[in-house]
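# nightly structure sweep
# worker-07 picked up a monomer target from the shared queue
# config: single-sequence mode, recycle default, output format = structure tokens
# input follows
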Amino acid sequence: MNSPPPPAHPDAVRDGFVSIAWRDREVRIEYRWIGGEQRAAPLLVFLHEGLGSVSMWREFPQQLCQAIGVRGLVYSRPGYGRSTPRAADEAWDVDFLHRQAHEVLPALFAALAIDEPVWLFGHSDGGSIALLHAARFPASVAGLAVLAPHILVEDITVAGIEQTRRSFMTTELPQKLARHHDDVDSAFWGWNRIWLHPSFRSWRIEAEIAAIRCPLLAVQGQDDEYGTLEQIRGIARRVPQTRLLELPRCGHSPHRDRPEAVIAAVAALMECTPGD
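# output follows
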């Protein structure tokens, strides 16, 4: 059940699996440790997007951790990557992001014997999960950076997800995603069906995130095809200590489109110096 401690060397990367109990069964979670400059370095936990996984992050987590001298933990949520796929009859409900934030993430921390306050780095759905976790468990979060998070459902989001559904059914998108997921149908349909379900249109978390007290960085591209700047501006209205970063020439994945700007902003948030 328990993972070995994070490696101390800044270039060390260690992959593995750990089991948690969730939804009345044992679920295997894929993870990757990225070593910091020292064992006492802050721990940055990466939460992936709606179709993401450990491998979908590519080299960015290691790039960020090495640039600012922190440790990193990357993992694939249940249903994604090499983690346990959804059961055949398992359909996600409107509370699926809450359950990841309130149930899966604490169980993962317990299984890996992580009992220190962590920093969270969440992208898209992962950003929403990071916000929900920080609001529910303030003592366990030192701070968080969220990229293109969702705090409510917008028309542009639904239109983008509908287009992704068409692409999945008519292009080579399933083959491309299969490079990153053992069960590509589990990953895609679990995410796509709930986001497009009529009951999900009323999903919103502005009131809940007002409980966040830690430092918070909210980043969004001005050309984001899945959401407007209202997503991060809405966070700032509810969480006064929020730092906003609105990036030109940037779509839904700021860490891919503008990695240098994201690294610099996270370094400032964590009071680190890139390149040290």
